[in-house]
Amino acid sequence: MKKPFAIILLATLFSCQQSVTRVAPDTQIDLSGRWNDSDSRLVADKMISELMASERFKEYAKEKGRKPAIVVGLIRNKTSEHIDSDTYIKKLEVAIYNSNVAEVVESEEFRDKLRLERAQQQDFADPATVAQWGKEIGANLMLFGEMTSETDTSNKKRVVNYITTLYLTDIETGKRVWYGQQEIKKFVKNG
Amino acid sequence: MNTAKSLRLAFSFFALVTLQACATYYQQHLDFNYEFEHGDLQQALNALKGSEAESKSRFLFFANKGLLLSVLGDYEESNAFLEKAFLFGEDYRINYFNEGVSYFTNPNFTVYRGEDHEHLMVLYFKAINYLKMNQPQDALVECRRLNIRLNQLTDKYSSPHKLQRDAFIHALMGIIYQSTKDYNNAFIAYRNALDVYENEYAKMFHMTVPEQLQKDLVNTAYWTGFMDEFENYKTKFGMQDYTPVQPDAELVFFWHNGLAPVKTEWGINFVIAPGPGNTMLFTNESMGMVFSFPVEEENDRRGLAALQIYRVVFPRYVERPLYFQTANLETNGTEYPLQLAEDVSKVAFQSLRQRMLQEFAKGLLRAALKKVTEQSLRKKDEGLGALLGVVNAATEKADTRNWQTLPHSIFYSRIPLVADEKNEVKLKLLPGEGSGTDYSFTYQPQKGRTLFHTFSSLESLAPSYSF
């Protein structure tokens, strides 16, 4: 008789409380084994360092005689997870912008919004401050990408290999100027 | 007031409390259920008591209110309640004191935490409300929440024999992504849905892959530019001649057919006998069940053995069979069958079935604890012990709470519409026998828009078991 009471009393004393702790954003915390913020950071870091070190990219910039302008195009996701590529693409954009090796121009979605604003300014803004048509910088390079994954499972074990490939393509010639690739392999054991 | 009158009053009060305590969750809300099942949703809404927002069944109050408001077309208010239901699920923590007390009374002493599929359904209704209000970005938030919930579900059950994934919710995510022109994510969601339909749903529920899903998967593969996948899926589905066409506008029509099952209770007799060491065995031979519990004191073991047979109650589902069996939409002379995407009833049965062993163990532990306490008290004071026996018997009850306003099954179809014109669409509901029932709707979409419509038919056949 005493034991169940004791168990219940003990359980009552140690009732579950929620706790929240702030941690440094670069702390690696893996819970489920799925794609997470650490993976996005690894991809962004690797791509940034590969782009900055790329001799071909430097040669291309030199040939142009000015900083090439880059626009982000399509990043295809062929994995089985809903991964938001913005999480690493934005990091890459910030790195390009800060390093001053290239210009970043707005993608299609935001260009449309800018053009709408510019069109409205023609009617409503002070002529002295109105944004002019035909002054947009044409992009030289478009960033494309693809994410794939291969999964192998057996009982409670799972191996997933994520491959992220990014490439910059010359819009005029269709020639690929730069490739970056990052593989992340995870082994997950449940229970 | 004389003594006899006072006693009668006290007895009536006791009888009322006992009767209320014996009633199932469905019976306790008979007025609400009556109005709801008769289609008087406004009256049903009025029958929901505000005090339940603070009760141990508050999740069901929020969910019921959210669902009813959604059917009544008050999407904003509906989402306010559904958000409360969602946050309840997010913030739920086990209260071990209540858990402990429930072992000496009944499981209704604990806060109802909601079944896995009920939490998914909260987000389904919420996302659809946003889509009907033309707020796709908000619907996408619900979509991401669904993804997190699905991941949690997969992590919760490691056994492949348990329902770890929800095909309909994956398909729904695809539908939401597709409506925002995010074909890549839509493709991923549809492919995941296909995987669940072909494996888990085929084995557990004998369901087939909805044709609509096959088309959506092929279309989104094509629009994403996955040409290998496009060709492979066309071949797999026998659609070699199929060419994806982007219509002017579209309608995604969900048919909520019938009503979800109701939880009631059933009892099993267990024979109690001493087991090896200091254990007592609860055995039901016909069901092949044996549970062993440690009981330290010899007197307690002897007391339990003297009981010989003990009845323990457990929850069970009772299906409310479908009245309408099939339905189709018709526009511009073309018929589009509504296809079964989710059998909520079967999912509910499966979720309870797969944790029934846990329910048995909990019920028996409760019974054992109650009886041991009674025996101990009898040793000290026979009268008090006998009184506790009466209280124990009166409070013995299974947890019969569940979200009973959910549909029995969800069917859907996607049909093309002509933009900026009035599109007449006829819905035809067909029962197993007899003539069908028709409804007509008119839609006037803008170019590129996907409209969403949910239609609820609450008719059911009489259940095989009264609740």
Automatic annotation (TrEMBL), chain A:
Pfam families: LpoB. One of its GO terms (biological process) is peptidoglycan biosynthetic process. This is Penicillin-binding protein activator LpoB. One of its GO terms (molecular function) is enzyme regulator activity. InterPro entries: LpoB. PANTHER family: PENICILLIN-BINDING PROTEIN ACTIVATOR LPOB. It comes from Chryseolinea soli. GO terms for cellular component: periplasmic side of cell outer membrane.
Automatic annotation (TrEMBL), chain B:
The keyword Signal applies. The keyword Oxidoreductase does not apply. It comes from the Bacteria. PROSITE patterns: PROKAR_LIPOPROTEIN, TPR. SUPFAM superfamilies: TPR-like. Gene3D superfamilies: Tetratricopeptide repeat domain (1.25.40.10). TPR repeats lie at residues 167-200. Keywords: Signal, TPR repeat. Residues 1-23 form the signal peptide. This is Uncharacterized protein. It comes from Chryseolinea soli. The lineage of its organism: Bacteria, Pseudomonadati, Bacteroidota, Cytophagia, Cytophagales.
